[in-house]
Amino acid sequence: MNDIQEWIQQLLIDLQIIKDEPSYLDNVLILMVIILLTVGIDYVCRRVMLNAFTRIAKRTKNQWDDLIVERKIIHKMMHIIPALLIYILLPIAFPSNEMPQLLAFARKVCAIYIIAVSLRFFSASLNIIDEISERKDSLKNKPVKGFVQIMQVTLFSIGAILIISVLIDQSPVSLLAGLGASAAILMLVFKDTLLGFVAGIQLSANDMLRPGDWITMPKHNANGTVIEVTLYAVKVRNFDNTITTIPPYALVSDAFQNWRGMKESNGRRIKRSIFIDMTTIHFCTEEMLGRFRDMPLVYDYIENMEAELTVWNYEQGCDATPGHGRWLTNLGVFRAYLENYIKRLPEINAQMACLVRHLQPTSEGLPIEIYFFTTNTDWTFYEHLQADVFDHILASVSAFDLAIYQKPSGRDLQNLNLTIHTASPLYRYSAN
Predict the structure, then answer these.
(1) Which of 276, 277, 270, 275 lies closest to 387, judged by CA?
(2) CA dihedral of 264, 265, 270, 271, whole degrees rounded to 10
(3) Burial class (CB in 10 A: 0-12, 13-18, 19+), 297
(4) Cα separation of 116 and 110, whole Å?
(5) pLDDT digit string (tens) for 20-68?
(6) How many Å apart are CA 295 and CA 426, to the nearest integer?
(7) Which residue from 203, 211, 268, 288 could staple onto 377, CB 3.0 to 4.6 Å apart?
(8) Element (H, E) at 187
(9) Of 51, 83, 68, nearest to 125 (Cα)?
(10) pLDDT digits (tens, 9 = 90+) for 155-196
(11) To which H or E segment does residue 118 belong?
(12) Rounded Cα distance, 224 and 242, in Å
């Protein structure tokens, strides 16, 4: 290195750019020559390397080289070359035996610039990785952005330590040792970052959350699709197009519901009840069974059950009076009708559970729960199918001599009041 410096210095003397006797003007001239030299080298490198890489990128089908050109990653890397050249050639302009303080200051500035430019280059390169992951189907649903942000935070933390070590002329190792004593303060300052870092690892390792998942979290008013998973926040686009931001550690410490399994299973559950007025539940008469046999969905059920019940009643010695032995009820036939009606729908998933069952009777009637799964998990399709099914169920109840229970409304009370009023003797007398 000293031989190179002496050769360049002698060359400048031979060209009569500087004199044999050192002076501050000569030092400034040498510095300007160094800067011009590095700028020229930087220009040549840019012209040659950038043009060559751009031509290669256009010929290939890969996405990553196109992104490198679009995001000017090579440009950012080129900024390091002139700074390194200046750092190496600075002793020519400011000899260490003549201007040690000025040389040390100039080298510190160059070192800080090199570190800053390197951080910018590596950070941009990590962003390229994130963009490539979003374009690949195999990585689209992976929380890559969170890990990229973790690496960027780590990178900038190391860069900050290196810059501070350059400014105070201390080894980065000794600086890290000193920071260890203030770890408690650092943990307090970077609490959210550390919690997000740990939570991001847990969410990814356990595959608890991916971009594109539908989640519900009532505590944070979240009910929608995950659009972004970062180190500091999970963004959820709700179905009303509002955005809910949730800290990652909240998803680990609190409960949330992920509907991914429902989508992957190709079956979305419909589970809803209707309330039957229990005063309308009766044993079936011959007239009722005659009407019910005209319904294709329950004809086989009635024939099979009548044969089974006749044998059972005969074996038990029961007579033909309803209430003695086992007899068909209008509610039982209605349940069979609903099961057969639902199983014949082309939109249901026949591989999953399908049933119609009783729930615990309440003061509002007997709940009949309809439980089955659809083949299409789309929300609009799901709601339309559910509405069509229950429109049919509510309309068909009266065909089985049953009634839906509902609480008396204002109109019911008006009709009751009118009935009482017209039935009173005073009303009949005034009418006559």
Answers:
(1) 270
(2) -110
(3) middle
(4) 10
(5) 555 555 566 667 777 777 777 777 777 777 777 777 767 777 666 667 7
(6) 49
(7) 268
(8) helix 183-189
(9) 68
(10) 888 888 888 888 887 777 777 666 665 666 666 666 777 777
(11) helix 100-135
(12) 9
The CB-side HSE value for 12 (13 A sphere, CA atoms) comes to 24
237 is written with which tokens? 């686009």
240-292: pLDDT as tens digits: 889 999 888 888 888 898 888 887 777 889 999 999 999 999 998 889 999 99
CA distances in angstroms from 174 to 158, 170, 179, 189, listed in the order given: 13, 7, 9, 22
Give SS3 for 185: helix
| Euclidean distance between CA atoms 128 and 134, whole angstroms | 10
Summarised one tens digit per residue, pLDDT across range 64-95 is 666 777 777 777 777 788 888 877 777 776 76
Q: Are 333 and 368 in contact (CB under 8 A)?
A: no
Distance separating alpha carbons of residues 220 and 235, to the nearest angstrom = 11
β-bridge pairing 268-276 and 355-358? unpaired
Instruction: Give the single-character DSSP code of 284.
Output: P
Quick one: tokens of 382?
């799901």
